[in-house]
Amino acid sequence: MYPSPIEGYVAPTTVDEAVAAFARWGEETHYIAGGQSLMQAIKSRMVRPKCLVDLQKIDVIQGIHQEPASIRIGAMTRYCDIADSELLEGPFAALVDGAGHVGDRQVRHRGTIGGSLCWNYISACMPAVNLAIGSQLTLASLSGQTRAIDIEDFLGAPLETSRQEGELLLSVELPQIVGRAGSAYRKWSLMTDGLPVIGVGAFLQLDDVGSCSSARISVTGLESGPIRVLTAERALIGVSHSNTKGIEEALNDSSTSLDTHSDEEADAEYRRVLFRHLGRDVVTRAFMRALGNRE
Predict the structure, then answer these.
(1) Domain boundary among 138, 158, 175
(2) pLDDT over threshold 90, residue 199
(3) End position of a domain, from candidates 152, 175, 198
(4) Stretch among 25-34, 112-121, 189-198, 275-284 having the lowest mean pLDDT
(5) Which residues pair with 204 in a beta bridge?
Protein backbone atom coordinates (compact mmCIF):
# COMPACT_ATOMS: atom_id res chain seq x y z
CA MET A 1 0.00 0.00 0.00
CA TYR A 2 1.16 3.53 -0.73
CA PRO A 3 1.16 6.22 1.98
CA SER A 4 -1.42 8.97 1.99
CA PRO A 5 -0.16 12.33 0.65
CA ILE A 6 2.38 14.10 2.88
CA GLU A 7 2.26 17.84 2.41
CA GLY A 8 5.42 18.90 4.19
CA TYR A 9 8.93 17.73 4.99
CA VAL A 10 11.30 19.66 7.26
CA ALA A 11 14.92 18.77 8.13
CA PRO A 12 15.92 21.12 10.97
CA THR A 13 19.45 21.41 12.33
CA THR A 14 18.51 22.55 15.86
CA VAL A 15 16.01 21.53 18.51
CA ASP A 16 14.37 24.96 18.36
CA GLU A 17 13.83 24.60 14.62
CA ALA A 18 12.32 21.14 15.11
CA VAL A 19 9.73 22.15 17.72
CA ALA A 20 8.95 25.32 15.75
CA ALA A 21 8.23 23.21 12.66
CA PHE A 22 5.95 20.97 14.67
CA ALA A 23 4.08 23.98 16.05
CA ARG A 24 3.75 25.48 12.56
CA TRP A 25 2.32 22.35 10.91
CA GLY A 26 0.04 21.27 13.75
CA GLU A 27 -1.11 18.06 15.38
CA GLU A 28 -0.82 15.79 12.31
CA THR A 29 2.94 16.42 12.30
CA HIS A 30 5.29 13.57 13.21
CA TYR A 31 8.93 13.65 14.24
CA ILE A 32 10.86 10.95 12.39
CA ALA A 33 14.07 9.48 13.82
CA GLY A 34 15.38 6.33 12.11
CA GLY A 35 11.92 5.65 10.70
CA GLN A 36 12.11 1.87 11.11
CA SER A 37 8.67 1.62 12.73
CA LEU A 38 7.06 4.88 11.64
CA MET A 39 7.61 4.34 7.91
CA GLN A 40 5.91 0.94 8.06
CA ALA A 41 2.94 2.54 9.79
CA ILE A 42 2.86 5.33 7.19
CA LYS A 43 3.00 2.91 4.26
CA SER A 44 0.13 0.89 5.72
CA ARG A 45 -1.78 4.14 6.42
CA MET A 46 -2.02 3.38 10.11
CA VAL A 47 -0.39 6.80 10.47
CA ARG A 48 -1.21 9.63 8.04
CA PRO A 49 1.10 12.55 8.74
CA LYS A 50 0.55 15.98 7.27
CA CYS A 51 4.23 16.80 7.76
CA LEU A 52 7.39 14.92 8.73
CA VAL A 53 10.07 16.64 10.81
CA ASP A 54 13.30 14.73 10.16
CA LEU A 55 15.65 14.78 13.18
CA GLN A 56 18.77 13.35 11.54
CA LYS A 57 20.61 16.67 11.13
CA ILE A 58 20.34 17.74 14.79
CA ASP A 59 23.81 17.03 16.15
CA VAL A 60 23.10 17.86 19.81
CA ILE A 61 20.76 14.88 20.20
CA GLN A 62 23.25 12.36 18.84
CA GLY A 63 26.05 10.40 20.48
CA ILE A 64 27.04 9.02 23.87
CA HIS A 65 28.67 11.51 26.23
CA GLN A 66 30.30 11.23 29.66
CA GLU A 67 28.96 14.04 31.85
CA PRO A 68 30.23 14.90 35.38
CA ALA A 69 27.40 13.03 37.10
CA SER A 70 25.90 10.86 34.35
CA ILE A 71 26.18 9.34 30.91
CA ARG A 72 24.02 11.13 28.35
CA ILE A 73 22.79 9.28 25.28
CA GLY A 74 21.29 11.48 22.59
CA ALA A 75 17.84 10.38 21.50
CA MET A 76 19.06 10.07 17.89
CA THR A 77 21.90 7.70 18.81
CA ARG A 78 21.70 4.59 16.66
CA TYR A 79 21.64 1.04 17.97
CA CYS A 80 24.96 0.21 16.28
CA ASP A 81 26.71 3.01 18.18
CA ILE A 82 25.25 1.85 21.50
CA ALA A 83 26.28 -1.74 20.79
CA ASP A 84 29.90 -0.62 20.22
CA SER A 85 30.17 1.78 23.16
CA GLU A 86 32.82 1.19 25.83
CA LEU A 87 31.22 3.84 28.07
CA LEU A 88 28.30 1.50 28.67
CA GLU A 89 30.26 -1.43 30.05
CA GLY A 90 29.45 -2.73 33.54
CA PRO A 91 26.48 -0.95 35.12
CA PHE A 92 24.76 -0.22 31.81
CA ALA A 93 25.93 -3.13 29.65
CA ALA A 94 22.31 -4.25 29.26
CA LEU A 95 22.01 -1.47 26.68
CA VAL A 96 24.84 -3.04 24.70
CA ASP A 97 23.15 -6.46 24.96
CA GLY A 98 19.85 -5.11 23.71
CA ALA A 99 21.13 -2.81 20.97
CA GLY A 100 23.38 -5.51 19.54
CA HIS A 101 20.43 -7.76 18.72
CA VAL A 102 17.68 -5.37 17.60
CA GLY A 103 16.37 -6.34 14.17
CA ASP A 104 18.93 -6.90 11.41
CA ARG A 105 22.02 -4.93 10.43
CA GLN A 106 20.02 -2.40 8.45
CA VAL A 107 17.73 -1.71 11.39
CA ARG A 108 20.65 -1.41 13.81
CA HIS A 109 22.32 1.15 11.56
CA ARG A 110 19.16 3.24 11.13
CA GLY A 111 17.06 2.75 14.24
CA THR A 112 17.57 4.97 17.30
CA ILE A 113 17.10 4.59 21.03
CA GLY A 114 14.79 7.59 21.16
CA GLY A 115 12.62 6.34 18.34
CA SER A 116 12.17 2.99 20.06
CA LEU A 117 11.25 4.54 23.42
CA CYS A 118 8.75 6.94 21.87
CA TRP A 119 7.16 4.22 19.72
CA ASN A 120 7.05 1.83 22.72
CA TYR A 121 6.18 -1.25 20.71
CA ILE A 122 4.67 -4.09 22.72
CA SER A 123 7.73 -6.38 22.59
CA ALA A 124 10.57 -3.98 21.79
CA CYS A 125 13.89 -4.42 23.59
CA MET A 126 14.87 -0.82 24.36
CA PRO A 127 11.89 0.05 26.61
CA ALA A 128 12.52 -3.05 28.74
CA VAL A 129 16.28 -2.44 28.93
CA ASN A 130 15.82 1.17 30.02
CA LEU A 131 13.20 0.10 32.54
CA ALA A 132 15.74 -2.29 34.05
CA ILE A 133 18.56 0.24 34.33
CA GLY A 134 16.33 3.09 35.55
CA SER A 135 16.96 5.66 32.84
CA GLN A 136 15.80 9.26 33.06
CA LEU A 137 14.61 11.07 29.94
CA THR A 138 14.82 14.73 28.99
CA LEU A 139 12.19 16.24 26.69
CA ALA A 140 11.70 19.65 25.09
CA SER A 141 8.23 21.19 24.73
CA LEU A 142 6.79 23.44 22.03
CA SER A 143 7.38 26.40 24.37
CA GLY A 144 11.09 25.61 24.54
CA GLN A 145 11.04 24.37 28.12
CA THR A 146 12.61 21.06 29.08
CA ARG A 147 11.57 18.49 31.65
CA ALA A 148 13.07 15.33 33.07
CA ILE A 149 11.01 12.20 33.62
CA ASP A 150 11.78 8.73 34.94
CA ILE A 151 11.38 5.88 32.48
CA GLU A 152 8.59 4.31 34.58
CA ASP A 153 6.55 7.49 34.26
CA PHE A 154 7.28 7.85 30.54
CA LEU A 155 6.27 4.40 29.32
CA GLY A 156 2.57 3.59 29.16
CA ALA A 157 0.58 0.81 27.54
CA PRO A 158 1.96 -0.51 24.23
CA LEU A 159 2.34 2.32 21.67
CA GLU A 160 1.63 4.88 24.40
CA THR A 161 3.87 7.20 26.40
CA SER A 162 3.42 10.32 28.53
CA ARG A 163 5.09 12.45 25.84
CA GLN A 164 2.89 15.50 25.31
CA GLU A 165 1.81 16.97 21.99
CA GLY A 166 4.86 18.25 20.13
CA GLU A 167 7.38 17.24 22.81
CA LEU A 168 10.73 16.11 21.48
CA LEU A 169 12.82 13.52 23.30
CA LEU A 170 16.33 14.93 23.66
CA SER A 171 18.31 12.39 25.64
CA VAL A 172 18.48 9.35 27.87
CA GLU A 173 20.38 10.02 31.11
CA LEU A 174 22.13 7.26 33.07
CA PRO A 175 23.02 8.36 36.61
CA GLN A 176 26.50 7.89 38.02
CA ILE A 177 26.65 4.67 40.04
CA VAL A 178 28.42 4.59 43.40
CA GLY A 179 29.83 1.19 44.24
CA ARG A 180 29.62 -2.03 42.28
CA ALA A 181 26.81 -2.55 39.80
CA GLY A 182 26.11 -4.57 36.67
CA SER A 183 23.31 -5.16 34.21
CA ALA A 184 22.40 -7.58 31.45
CA TYR A 185 19.62 -8.26 28.94
CA ARG A 186 18.67 -11.29 26.92
CA LYS A 187 15.73 -12.20 24.70
CA TRP A 188 14.33 -15.32 23.04
CA SER A 189 12.67 -15.05 19.65
CA LEU A 190 11.55 -17.38 16.90
CA MET A 191 14.31 -16.16 14.59
CA THR A 192 17.75 -14.65 15.05
CA ASP A 193 17.44 -11.00 16.09
CA GLY A 194 13.66 -11.09 15.77
CA LEU A 195 11.25 -9.42 18.17
CA PRO A 196 11.36 -11.16 21.54
CA VAL A 197 8.72 -13.63 22.61
CA ILE A 198 10.13 -12.84 26.02
CA GLY A 199 13.02 -10.55 26.94
CA VAL A 200 14.42 -10.04 30.43
CA GLY A 201 16.64 -7.26 31.79
CA ALA A 202 18.46 -7.11 35.13
CA PHE A 203 20.30 -4.36 37.00
CA LEU A 204 22.02 -5.20 40.30
CA GLN A 205 23.94 -3.18 42.87
CA LEU A 206 26.16 -5.04 45.34
CA ASP A 207 27.13 -4.36 48.93
CA ASP A 208 30.62 -4.62 50.42
CA VAL A 209 30.49 -8.41 50.67
CA GLY A 210 29.19 -8.92 47.12
CA SER A 211 25.54 -9.59 47.90
CA CYS A 212 22.72 -7.88 46.06
CA SER A 213 21.67 -4.67 47.81
CA SER A 214 19.35 -3.36 45.09
CA ALA A 215 17.76 -4.99 42.04
CA ARG A 216 15.66 -3.99 39.06
CA ILE A 217 14.19 -6.76 36.88
CA SER A 218 12.17 -6.05 33.74
CA VAL A 219 10.37 -8.22 31.21
CA THR A 220 9.02 -7.56 27.74
CA GLY A 221 6.79 -9.67 25.50
CA LEU A 222 3.68 -9.33 27.65
CA GLU A 223 0.38 -7.91 26.41
CA SER A 224 0.75 -5.12 28.97
CA GLY A 225 4.10 -4.06 27.52
CA PRO A 226 7.33 -3.95 29.54
CA ILE A 227 7.02 -4.14 33.31
CA ARG A 228 9.22 -4.42 36.37
CA VAL A 229 8.97 -7.70 38.28
CA LEU A 230 8.92 -6.40 41.84
CA THR A 231 8.63 -9.83 43.47
CA ALA A 232 11.88 -10.93 41.85
CA GLU A 233 13.58 -7.69 42.84
CA ARG A 234 12.66 -8.13 46.50
CA ALA A 235 13.64 -11.80 46.52
CA LEU A 236 17.13 -11.05 45.18
CA ILE A 237 18.06 -8.70 48.03
CA GLY A 238 20.80 -10.34 50.10
CA VAL A 239 21.52 -13.04 47.52
CA SER A 240 25.14 -13.49 46.41
CA HIS A 241 26.41 -14.47 42.96
CA SER A 242 27.41 -17.92 44.23
CA ASN A 243 23.95 -18.62 45.62
CA THR A 244 22.54 -20.19 42.47
CA LYS A 245 19.66 -21.74 44.43
CA GLY A 246 18.63 -18.33 45.75
CA ILE A 247 18.71 -16.84 42.24
CA GLU A 248 16.63 -19.71 40.85
CA GLU A 249 14.08 -19.45 43.64
CA ALA A 250 13.71 -15.71 43.12
CA LEU A 251 12.97 -16.17 39.41
CA ASN A 252 10.87 -19.31 39.80
CA ASP A 253 8.63 -17.86 42.49
CA SER A 254 8.11 -14.54 40.69
CA SER A 255 7.26 -16.21 37.37
CA THR A 256 3.95 -17.40 38.77
CA SER A 257 2.80 -13.81 39.19
CA LEU A 258 3.44 -12.84 35.56
CA ASP A 259 0.31 -12.18 33.53
CA THR A 260 1.44 -14.05 30.42
CA HIS A 261 -0.69 -14.86 27.38
CA SER A 262 -0.92 -17.53 24.69
CA ASP A 263 -0.63 -16.92 20.96
CA GLU A 264 0.86 -18.59 17.87
CA GLU A 265 4.41 -17.92 19.11
CA ALA A 266 4.16 -19.45 22.60
CA ASP A 267 1.59 -20.36 25.22
CA ALA A 268 1.34 -18.65 28.58
CA GLU A 269 3.22 -21.32 30.53
CA TYR A 270 6.09 -21.44 28.06
CA ARG A 271 6.49 -17.67 28.44
CA ARG A 272 6.90 -18.23 32.18
CA VAL A 273 9.51 -20.91 31.46
CA LEU A 274 11.36 -18.45 29.24
CA PHE A 275 11.25 -15.80 31.95
CA ARG A 276 12.75 -18.21 34.49
CA HIS A 277 15.47 -19.40 32.10
CA LEU A 278 16.44 -16.00 30.72
CA GLY A 279 16.08 -14.39 34.14
CA ARG A 280 18.59 -16.73 35.75
CA ASP A 281 21.03 -16.02 32.93
CA VAL A 282 20.80 -12.22 33.02
CA VAL A 283 20.91 -12.03 36.82
CA THR A 284 24.02 -14.20 36.86
CA ARG A 285 25.60 -12.10 34.11
CA ALA A 286 24.73 -8.87 35.92
CA PHE A 287 26.39 -10.25 39.07
CA MET A 288 29.55 -11.12 37.14
CA ARG A 289 29.72 -7.70 35.49
CA ALA A 290 29.29 -6.00 38.86
CA LEU A 291 32.21 -8.06 40.12
CA GLY A 292 34.42 -6.91 37.25
CA ASN A 293 33.87 -9.59 34.61
CA ARG A 294 33.00 -7.97 31.28
CA GLU A 295 31.32 -11.08 29.86
Answers:
(1) 175
(2) yes
(3) 175
(4) 189-198
(5) 182, 215
Phi, psi dihedral angles at 92 (to 5 degrees): -120, 25
In this structure, the answer to whether residues 65 and 86 fall within a common structural domain is yes
The answer as to whether 294 is a domain residue is no
Q: Do β-strands 136-140 and 168-175 pair in parallel, antiparallel, or remain unpaired? A: antiparallel
Q: Which residues contact 48 (CB under 8 A, 6 or more apart)?
A: 3, 4, 28, 42
**Who contacts 87 (Cβ-Cβ below 8 Å, separation ≥6)?**
64, 66, 71
Neighbours of 232 (CB within 10 A): 28
pTM above 0.90, yes or no: yes
From residue 216, alpha-carbon distances to 63, 130, 179, 204, 241 in Å are: 26, 10, 16, 7, 16
Tell me the pLDDT tens digit for each residue of 34-84. Answer: 988 888 888 888 889 899 999 999 999 999 999 999 999 999 999 999 999
In 3D space, the residue among 226, 237, 221, 227 whose CA is nearest the CA of residue 283 turns out to be 237
Q: How does residue 187 score in pLDDT terms, banded at 50, 70 and 90?
A: very high
